[in-house]
Specification:
mainly alpha; single chain
């Protein structure tokens, strides 16, 4: 079963390795159990509100998209147990 989960994590990592790294970093920096769907939704809402639609810039848009992607990836990683994620990292690491 763990190897099935590893396969799912491998797929996620292969899609975008930097995004995977950023999501793992986020989860570990705030605490795996502290990251909730409500927290992600609130952070996404705040990121949207901080975006200046009256004077948008490419940099601001890229920052907003990056925040959304990292929060989404962290939410996806959070669907795995901490044990599975730690076993995966112990076996395969999380940084390139």
């Amino acid at each position: 079963m763990t190897h099935d989960k590893f396969h799912e994590l491998d797929e996620m990592r292969e899609k975008d390795e930097k995004l995977f790294e950023a999501a793992v970093d986020l989860l570990f920096s705030i605490g795996f159990d502290n990251f909730t769907e409500e927290m992600a939704a609130e952070a996404m809402h705040e990121a949207k509100e901080d975006f200046d639609v009256s004077n948008p810039s490419v940099d601001d848009m890229l920052t907003l998209v990056a925040k959304m992607l990292v929060l989404g990836a962290a939410s996806e990683l959070r669907s795995f147990s901490l044990t599975v994620l730690l076993d995966y990292i112990a076996e395969k690491g999380w940084r390139a």
